[in-house]
Every structure is written in C-alpha cells, then in structure tokens.
Amino acid sequence: xxxxxxxxxxxxxxxxxxxxxxxxxxxxxxxxxxxxxxxxxxxxxxxxxxxxxxxxxxxxxxxxxxxxxxxxxxxxxxxxxxxxxxxxxxxxxxxxxxxxxxxxxxxxxxxxxxxxxxxxxxxxxxxxxxxxxxxxxxxxxxxxxxxxxxxxxxxxxxxxxxxxxxxxxxxxxxxxxxxxxxxxxxxxxxxxxxxxxxxxxxxxxxxxxxxxxxxxxxxxxxxxxxxxxxxxxxxxxxxxxxxxxxxxxxxxxxxxxxxxxxxxxxxxxxxxxxxxxxxxxxxxxxxxxxxxxxxxxxxxxxxxxxxxxxxxx
Length: 313
What we know:
alpha/beta; Rossmann fold; 4-stranded parallel beta sheet; 12 helices
C-alpha cells in the first residue's frame, strides 16, 4: 500500500485547494464559477475565476494546462486549435500531450509554444502574471464543485474559441445523459450510502466536490461527509472508518493507478462485512473520470447507474 498520495491524487488535491482559495477570495479573484459571453463572434468577453477575459479574435494556438479543459476543448470542436496540452492530458488520444506541467506550470516553457490563449486550472508559480507580461491571454477555470459549474465552463470554452453552438449542444447532451442515467436506477437505491475511493490510502471526496455532486443526483449519502480533518472536501479516511460506516456502494477510482477491484477490496481486513462487498455493489471507475469535471461526467453517471441497477439485496 502506498505511504503517500499518488501524483494523480496530488493533482486532484491541488486543484481542489485552488478552487477553495478562489471561492473564499484568497487569491483576490472572483468566485470559482464562470458565465459565458454572448457567443456572437469576436471580440468576446467571458467570465472566468479571475474576472472578465476579453478575447479579440478566434484563438488558433491554444495551450491547455488542465486535463479537463483539454477534454472539453476537443468536445466542443476546438481540438484543432490546441497546439499543446499538459502531461496529464490523457484524453482524447489525439490531444497534443507534452511535458508541460499543469501542476507546477513554467510560464517560459508555455510561452515556447507561442500561444494566443492559455487555459489553466490553477495559478501556481505566478503563471498568470508571467504570461500577461508576455501579452498572452489566460483563461483560468479552476476545479468545478457542482455540475452547473462544469456546464458553465464548457460553454465558456466554446464561446472563447468560437464554438458557442457546439458547446451548447455538448452541455445539452451531457445533461440529458445524466438525467437518463438517474432515471434508470430503481427508486429503492435512493438513500444508500456511498464511499468514493481516490487511492489506497483512503482519500475520498465529499458531497461538496464535483464527483460528490454526481452521487447526490442519485440520492446517495456520502460517508465522507461525516469525516473530520484538515482536508474538508477531500478527506483522508481510514479502513476502520470505512468499515464502521458500512457503505452500501463503493466506487473505486483507483482501478488503473493501483490495480484495485472488487476482489482486492474483499481481501482487505474486515471489509467482507461491508454491505457493498457482500452485495457486489462496487463501481469500477476509470481513474480520470473521478477527478475531471468535463463532458465525460456523463460516462461517470452511466457507470454508476449500471452498477446500482444491477444491485441485489
């Protein structure tokens, strides 16, 4: 079992911390929600976490330092405008993944791609100020904490890149798929408890996170909401806490990084008594789906729905 969070988990926690600081005014920025411009051509002004951002013409050289932004840019039809993406942008396969770090961004390295727009989820290393000195437009879109924030970010990226209509369609389709997934689940599953596992050290996510908001749509009660500690939204639980909480549903977002599955969970001490293990209600989730707030949230919802619909007991 790893003694410290994985790099993937570290990225999740940093993004979450950035969102909290922004929402609380800790960076002097506006709240971590975004509202799109009119989408009626350029110039266009969109609202991001640092306030209004005006984009004079359709960007042709976009650098994405956020895996979620990369997915969203491609989803709204701006993929061909992306010339570089950070080292964690694993989806889609055609994304121009580079060695650029979104975790600890280097403004000079980013500027080397001659971008006319940079999209990022955090302002580590003074990224925004450094790029502004180089007259590079920066769109800061921190981690969403609600589905609506995620939808708004999709629309902002569409407006900022000249794909207003495409973004609106992606948002509508995503909403429809999530609604359908929720409707497909038997009413008896509402009120069940859920444990979301980020890694084997029992880091989890509360209802105040984006993934937690998805579980709330299904009427699930999150056991992490009862946890205490310094990381309020992404607390580190313990095996004892999870077993005592007796979750009806377990979601494993560490299947790829850490090789976790229903069998490995069942072999953990005392986990054989956990209702989710006894009924086989264990959601095997692609790691990235548990930490990104783009259009593939619909995939997350459908994966959860399939497991809940098949639940016995």
